[in-house]
Design brief:
Layout (H helix, E strand, L loop, with lengths): L2 E10 L2 E11 L2 E6 L6 H8 L7 E6 L2 E2 H4 L1 H4 L2 E4 L11 H11 L4 H14 L15 H12 L6 E5 L7 H14 L4 E6 L2 H5 L4 E6 L2 E6 L1 H6 L5 E6 L1 H6 L5 E8 L2 E7 L9 E2 L4 H9 L10
Parallel strand pairs: 3-8, 3-9, 6-7, 7-8
Antiparallel strand pairs: 1-2, 1-4, 4-5, 9-10, 11-13, 11-14, 12-13
Helix pairs in contact: 4-5
The chain binds adenosine-5'-triphosphate (ATP).
The site of adenosine-5'-triphosphate has 11 residues, from strand 2 and helix 1.
GO molecular function: ATP binding
Organism: Blautia hominis
Family: Belongs to the ABC transporter superfamily.
Length: 294
């Protein structure tokens, strides 16, 4: 199975949210990683036919998704960023309702609902109202509904937003487990959500993919550029603004710094093993303010 984006573009008035994106995806987990506003949601919405591209095309095995129509949508499972859960529904009724909207046969819907509530560890909560669910439970239910039609293409827009570390870990394992024979696209701005489970990372910035590769292919690009050093506060203040400080940790009166720089930032600096987080922070460094906030 080959999902292709061909010069996919979306323009809102004078804002180009997605800019001539071309990419070919086969079975596997893809992490769309980018800062807020990079264009991830817009791109996913075009892939799922929620919005129409200004130009460009999406194809599946060479056929336009528009031409395929219903046949394409039948292969899709989508979890939007803000899912409209009906708080008065129980988890089970909600699943059956979505199954009906998707046009699934009632007997199949019932069987799938049971299986998926089990998979997402919600069986015991099947008859509880969604309004009583934690953020993590709602996200698990969101995944369950996206899987109702056994999709070959699963698109998850910031599925881990608001989850605590334990729920994030559970979630990652669940995605890994269900990704066989599927194209799974997962958008996030949290590096650790995709670092260990994505087969490929697609780094998105200003509407374009600026990098694409496995974690090790991407981190190799900054091999030899990551440094650790101790510095006084003054030295940090005077440091060239173009040097990307990815972490600064106070130790007594000094600071322990981790920086990305293609030249040695100070005499005492020693090289460190690059991580995906280093690469991400370097890519989006200019979008941070002088206090290191986004
Ligand atoms: N309906 C719209 N009208 C105008 N501009 C829009 C619209 N939707 C998105 N944009 C703009 O397009 C750009 C990309 O937005 P998008 O939501 O796709 O980014 P994102 O990477 O998903 O970020 P986030 O994680 O914050 O949702 C942003 O500058 C956003 O303000």
């Amino acid at each position: 199975m080959k999902l292709t984006m061909e010069r996919l573009t979306k323009q809102f008035k004078n804002k180009i949210a997605v800019d001539r994106v071309s990419m070919e995806l086969e079975e596997g987990i893809y992490g769309f990683l980018g800062a807020n506003g990079a264009g991830k949601t817009t791109l996913m919405q075009m892939l799922c036919q929620i919005i129409t591209p200004t130009s460009g095309e999406v194809k599946l095995d060479g056929r336009s998704n528009i031409e395929m129509g219903e046949a394409f949508r039948d292969l899709l499972g989508y979890l939007p960023q803000e899912f409209g859960y009906s708080p008065g529904f129980t988890a089970k009724d909600f699943m059956l309702y979505i199954a009906a909207v998707k046009g699934l046969r009632p007997s199949y819907a019932k069987k799938r609902t049971k299986e998926l509530l089990e998979l997402t560890n919600l069986s015991e909560d099947a008859d509880r109202k969604i309004r009583t669910f934690s953020g993590g439970m709602k996200q698990r239910l969101g995944i369950a509904q996206a899987l109702l039609n056994d999709p070959r293409i699963l698109v998850l827009d910031e599925p881990t937003a608001g989850l605590d570390p334990k729920e994030r870990a559970y979630f990652r394992n669940m995605i890994s487990g269900l990704s066989k024979d599927k194209i799974v696209i997962l958008s996030t701005h949290i590096v650790s959500d995709v670092e260990y489970i994505a087969d490929r990372i697609l780094l998105m910035k200003k509407g374009r993919f600026i990098m694409n590769g496995t974690v090790s292919e991407l981190t190799e690009t900054i091999d030899g550029e990551v440094w650790e050093c101790e510095a006084e506060e003054k030295e940090l203040e005077n440091m060239d603004r173009s040097i990307c400080v990815v972490n600064s940790h106070r130790q007594g009166k000094d600071l322990r710094l981790r920086v990305v720089s293609n030249t040695k930032p100070m005499q005492s600096a020693v090289k460190a093993e690059p991580t995906l987080e280093d690469l991400y922070l370097k890519a989006f460094y200019e979008e941070m303010d002088e206090r290191g906030r986004w």
